[in-house]
Amino acid sequence: MKTPNQKAWWLVVPVVLLVAFNALIPLMTVINYSVQETFGENVFFFEGVKWFQAVLHSERFHNSLQRQLLFTGIILAIEVPLGVAIALAMPRRGPWVSVCLVLVAMPLLIPWNVVGAMWNLLALPDIGLLGRTLNAVGIDYNYTRQPFAAWATLIAMDVWHWTSLVVLLAYAGLSAIPDAYYQAAKIDGASSGAVFRYIQLPKMKRVLTIAVLLRFMDSFMIYTEPIVLTGGGPGNATTLLSIDLVKVALGQFDLGPAAAMSLIYFLIVLLLSWIFYTVMTKDEAE
After folding, report:
1. Cβ neighbour number for residue 53 with a 10 Å cutoff
2. Is the pLDDT of residue 285 over 60?
3. 95 vs 91, 105, 107, 169, 178, CA distance in Å?
4. What Cα–Cα distance (Å) separates residue 46 from each residue in 50, 69, 156, 245, 258?
5. Is it true that domain 9-285 has CATH number 1.10.238.10?
6. How far is the C-alpha of 36 from the C-alpha of 260, rounded, in Å?
7. How far is residue 195's CA from residue 223's CA, in Å, rounded to a whole number?
8. pLDDT band for position 1 (cuts 50, 70, 90)
């Protein structure tokens, strides 16, 4: 029996070490600040878990976390079904396949800060096309003053920007289904609903798991788009967890609470991602 050559792994070692170094140094710095207090001049005082307790008992943190969970839940409930529906409607063969894929992928190519700026100009109630149109047809719309309008605009922006990712992943899963499955279903007289339930959806399960995990993590860590669009306002209506963290760290320069909050933030994302993955792959494990 021929022994596989494992020497190629040595080519990956430098990259792994570099990534580990770039990840561990900032993490160690954050952990250091999370258990200490400083008044400048590089003088630190050990505080233990004081900052963690302060963050966990903070009403401000709880409110930001609730807004973040609400935002993530809404966009997942919209983007995943919408992405699957668009993928099902796209052609599988012919010259229009490339055209559709390029058009669908275009929002993903736009930088995040540009997306926020685009929607800011689009939704302004005085000069924006969307804002002026809604007000012209009798809908009172001003996302700079109305929390509901700010939320609706923020969600619409995220759906426009990131549904394409779900579409591309779902389309890849659909394209990998052999024609023999469809031919057998046609012979059996299966309806389109039955084909989706028993053929397409099971075959898309793995790519949808990836889509849900990616969109969950991205939406839970979103910062650039909402800070450019709403700045966390009006008031604190759209101050998500990431925005609140930056305000504590840079706005107030409370490095200890900010470091503790960032570690709690990281653990929440890690825990919820693990729960999502475990639930969605439960049947495969069994």
Report:
1. 12
2. no
3. 9, 16, 21, 20, 20
4. 10, 33, 45, 22, 16
5. no
6. 10
7. 39
8. low
Q: Which of 161, 154, 163, 157 is nearest to 239 (CA)?
A: 154
Structure tokens of 186? 């046609």
Q: 225: Cβ–Cβ under 8 A, 6 or more apart, which residues? A: 112, 113, 115, 116, 119, 154, 157, 158, 161
Specify the pTM: 0.88
Which tokens sit at 147?
A: 């929390």
CA angle 38, 50, 248 (to 5 degrees): 60
Host H or E run for residue 190: none
In angstroms, the CA 239 to CA 254 distance is 18
- Choose among 20, 80, 21, 55: nearest CA to 267: 55
What sign results for the dihedral spanned by CA atoms 155, 160, 161, 163?
Answer: positive
